[in-house]
């Protein structure tokens, strides 16, 4: 695939017109994986290129596609990992599974808790994230936040858990 590097750069930089032109030449690029195992949708979401992500989704990009790397993350996980809240909101609005797991059972809420990203935690919970979901090692998002010493996330998650009871 000679165009994979070009569509990778276009997705990273939010060049929607270039993405369209490349997909017209080579439609299979929509679900092609770059050398890091990510698709154009993963990259657009990770780098917060919301317009490009919208375009890719409108053209049929798989919102639940797993990366071909050891993390096996989906575009939602990629957006959360780089604190791209607008991309996360877009993906959830378009039907991404808020409780989807990547390798190790890691969810977006685990990632946001690990990062101490309070706004992301709030958004994910508002969109239906399971606050008590466990990774493969049995740890909940709260336990991940405690382990990482993310005090504000610990406080926030504790509040949500207390309100749930």
TrEMBL record:
Positions of ANK repeats: 36-68, 71-103, 104-136
Stored InterPro entries: Ankyrin_rpt (IPR002110), Ankyrin_rpt-contain_sf (IPR036770)
Protein name: Ankyrin repeat protein
Keywords: ANK repeat, Repeat
Keyword Disulfide bond (UniProt): no
GO BP term (any one): protein K6-linked ubiquitination
Organism superkingdom: Bacteria
GO molecular function per UniProt: ubiquitin-protein transferase activity
Organism: Priestia aryabhattai
Keyword Repeat applies: yes
SMART domains reported in the protein's UniProt record: ANK
């Amino acid at each position: 695939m000679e165009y994979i590097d070009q569509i990778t750069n276009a997705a990273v930089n939010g060049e929607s017109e270039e993405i369209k032109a490349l997909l017209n030449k080579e439609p299979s690029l929509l679900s092609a994986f770059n050398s890091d195992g990510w698709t154009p949708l993963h990259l657009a979401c990770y780098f917060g290129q919301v317009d490009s992500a919208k375009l890719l989704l409108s053209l049929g990009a798989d919102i639940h596609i797993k990366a071909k790397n050891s993390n096996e993350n989906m575009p939602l996980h990629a957006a959360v990992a780089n604190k791209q809240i607008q991309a996360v909101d877009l993906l959830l609005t378009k039907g991404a599974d808020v409780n989807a797991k990547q390798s190790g059972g890691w969810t977006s809420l685990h990632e946001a808790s690990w990062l101490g990203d309070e706004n992301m935690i709030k958004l994910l919970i508002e969109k239906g994230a399971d606050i008590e979901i466990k990774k493969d090692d049995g740890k909940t998002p709260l336990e991940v936040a405690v382990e990482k010493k993310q005090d504000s996330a610990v406080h926030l998650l504790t509040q949500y858990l207390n309100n749930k009871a």
